[in-house]
Design the sequence.
């Protein structure tokens, strides 16, 4: 697993629950060092051990942990760069949804060896969509729910999200756009002076 994924788990725990909780998670997962190297490759077992340790420390199931990580990746000030990358996808939430098919390619432009699952958005009419995450490790659908929830808030849209199922390696998220302009969205600028993203 790419180190960026494990680093995201570390940053989520440390920034949300504190350094002591992260050190406990790292010890329970039996990783060699409590500081993840973002550009290294790790055995998949390291990632699963980290997630199990996070679940135990927070007394949450894996789906909830992954959704919270997805929300963190978009909403926390320490990862503002990712929010900006995603906001380039469109001027409103519907535009953003339609940009998701290109997300794995855009991610590879930033990090050439980062493999995200293939994503396919389908529109079903009446503000209903489905997003299929294809070919990735189990759990990407839950991560995307967290990302979508945070981005909907960012755009000021009201949405309902549901993890439908996992079929033959595909994970499907149902998206219902309830109201396009539910609230005022967050300010978005091309560059942010407060970008203090973790390395």
Sequence:
């Amino acid at each position: 697993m790419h180190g960026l994924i494990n680093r995201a788990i570390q940053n989520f725990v440390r920034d949300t629950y504190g350094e002591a909780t992260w050190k406990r998670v790292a010890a329970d997962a039996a990783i060699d060092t409590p500081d993840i190297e973002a550009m290294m490759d790790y055995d998949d077992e390291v990632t699963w051990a980290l997630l199990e340790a996070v679940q135990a420390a927070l007394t949450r199931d894996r789906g909830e942990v992954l959704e919270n990580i997805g929300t963190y990746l978009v909403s926390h000030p320490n990862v503002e760069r990712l929010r900006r990358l995603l906001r380039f996808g469109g001027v409103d939430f519907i535009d953003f949804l339609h940009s998701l098919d290109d997300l794995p390619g855009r991610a590879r432009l930033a990090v050439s060896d980062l493999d995200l699952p293939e994503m396919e958005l389908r529109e079903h009419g009446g503000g209903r969509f489905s997003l299929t995450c294809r070919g990735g490790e189990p759990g990407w659908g839950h991560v995307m729910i967290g990302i979508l929830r945070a981005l909907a808030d960012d755009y000021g849209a009201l949405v309902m999200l549901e993890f439908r199922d996992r079929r033959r390696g595909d994970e499907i998220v149902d998206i219902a756009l309830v109201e396009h302009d539910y609230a005022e969205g967050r300010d978005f600028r091309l560059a942010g002076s407060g970008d203090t993203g973790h390395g």
